[in-house]
Each structure stands twice: as structure tokens, then as C-alpha cells.
Amino acid sequence: MKHGEFTFTMIKPTAVKLGKVVPILHEIDLAGFSVIAMKMTRLSRAQAERFYLVHKDRPFYSELVDFMSSGPVLAAVLQKENAVEDFRNLIGNTNPESADLGTIRKKFAKSVQENAIHGSDSDENALIEANFFFSQFEIFPH
Ligand code: CMP
Hints:
Elements: E1 6-11, H1 13-17, H2 21-30, E2 34-41, H3 45-51, H4 61-68, E3 73-79, H5 83-91, H6 104-108, E4 117-119, H7 123-133
Antiparallel strand pairs: 1-3, 1-4, 2-3
Helix pairs in contact: 3-4
Adenosine-3',5'-cyclic-monophosphate binds next to loops.
């Protein structure tokens, strides 16, 4: 995978439960991203704690870990030029109330915690997060 040309995403438990996987993937496709790895899985509490370790001192950490391990998620690696920034623009602000019209979070998020979808915030984290969910044999860059 080429640095800068991929990002990691995860459709969160509420959005999966509400049947929004396909509608959200449709938006991602229309925005020009291609799926180079994908799986539906459920995080254990310990895995969710590890994935969100950077937030361990935040007041919402424990609730976030409970939420993210409450049901299946859809994890994927997406390829596109300028993937991290373009994907963050596509999903919109963490808080759906502040997200721009037309963004995925504006359309599908329930709250700042149950905000439908995750997107990596840097190229470095995209690599760490992709490697958290996928082995090198499960990612198929173009
Ligand atoms: P995400 O982009 O996955 O990164 C960290 C997550 O923490 C974020 O999306 C939200 O799900 C959650 N989060 C961020 N801020 C808050 C908050 N103020 N209250 C509750 N959850 C939050």
C-alpha cells in the first residue's frame, strides 16, 4: 500500500444494526474510493480498548469501548489519492450536529458517540488501524 493513498474505516455498531452498511458503502463508492480490504467482525472489550487507546484519558473512553464492542462492525481499507483527508471530508464532523449537509455523519449518525463511521485521522494511523484489523494477505491494493 502506498503512503497517502489509503485510509481505514469502520461502520459502527448502531449503523450496522440499522441496516446502513450498504447505503454507506454506496456513498463511499460514489465518492471515488475503492475497497481493498473488508470484513464484518465484532470487537471484544479488550480489542476496543486497544483500538481507542489514544482516548484512554477522555471522559467518554469507557462508554466508547462499551459501545464499540456492543455489536458487529464493518471494517475496511479504502484506496484513493489523498484518501485520509478526502474521506474525513466525506464523513464530516465527529459531532453530527456540526457535520456539513451531505456528509455521511449528517445522514446516518445518531450522536457524537454513535456517529455511524470512523475514518483515520492521519496516514500513520491509517496504517496502524489497517494492520490492527487485517493481515498483509487480506489487503489487495491496486
Ligand atoms: P471516532 O472518529 O471513531 O474517534 C473517537 C470516537 O470517540 C469518535 O469517533 C466518537 O465515536 C467518540 N467520541 C468523540 N468525542 C466524544 C464525546 N464528546 N462523547 C462521546 N463520544 C465521543
